[in-house]
Amino acid sequence: MSKTLYPSLAAARLCALALLLVSPAASAQEPGARPTPAPAAKASAPKSDEKAEEIVRRAVDALGGAAYLDVRTVVSHGYFTPYHDGVATLPVRFEDYLVFPDRERTHFRGSIVNSIQTNTGETGWVADLKMKKLTDITPAQAEDFRLTMRVSLDNVLRGWWRSEGAALTYVGRREAGLGRRNEAVRLSYPDGFTVEFEFSARDALPSKALYRKQNSEGELVEEEDRYAQFQEVGSVRAPFIIDHFRAGVQSSRVNFEAVEFNRPVPDSLFTRPADVKALK
Predict the structure, then answer these.
(1) Host domain of residue 23
(2) CATH number of the domain where residue 38 is located
């Protein structure tokens, strides 16, 4: 995705990682494609406005307040479904281990894939268990991981953006369906990247994340995450469905079956094995 948590950060990363591992041809991370802009900028003093900060505080409270903020690990499983031209294809089962702020291991299992991808900050590795191949993540995969962190709900709600010198500002109210409105805030980074988050004006729950990503042709494509089916997990509310849209067309769905917060996650899960045979 979050939290005492909630799987927004894990879900955002699952969308990106699964497209890389399961359906590269359908992914915006095509050969040569990369998030825009790519280089990291030197952090300056973070800025925000009072209205935007209040919206973020209300969202944190809606998700569980202190319980949400106390989450340090998230263990989850469910199904990732790629979409082709807006139509769902075969789902892929996943198990995900997330340790805040920047360690994640995701295992995808399906008829066409059996792969593990692990990210630890700017490093990581990928194991193709079908092909019995182990490789380090590519610069493009590392940059994609950085992007998914920037556009995650955890980032805006937990204030991680401050370390990059981003500015949080209020955008305004937007239509969100019949009789419904969303409050929108924007994170603007020193390198020019921006992402907007929408929260329900009625109950403050997260609704959307919107940003643009550069494809292999150099075109900026609209990307959007939509959060739905919030459920109580202990003292925290979590979205169990996250749909991703690219250029207005659905490209994937993450459907969580179970989520556990603050379960112990051993460091060994993120250590690069000597070979694929060492993986269980």
Answers:
(1) 8-272
(2) 2.50.20.10
Domain count, the chain: 1
| CA–CA distance, 30 with 24 (Å, rounded to integer) | 7
- pTM attached to this predicted model: 0.84
Beta pairing class for 47-48 and 167-175? parallel
pLDDT digits (tens, 9 = 90+) for 201-254: 999 999 999 999 988 788 999 999 999 999 999 999 999 999 999 999 999 999
Rounded CA-CA distance 237/229 in Å is 10
Yes or no: say if 142 and 124 are a contact pair by the CB < 8 Å rule: yes
Is residue 3 in some structural domain? no
Q: Is residue 197 part of a domain?
A: yes
Q: Flag whether 61 is in a domain.
A: yes
- Please, are residues 74 and 96 in contact by the beta-carbon 8 Å criterion? yes
53-60 contacts, C-beta under 8 A, 24 or more apart = 53/168, 55/170, 55/183, 55/185, 55/199, 55/204, 56/156, 56/157, 56/168, 56/185, 58/199, 58/204, 59/157, 59/199, 59/204, 59/205, 59/206, 60/157
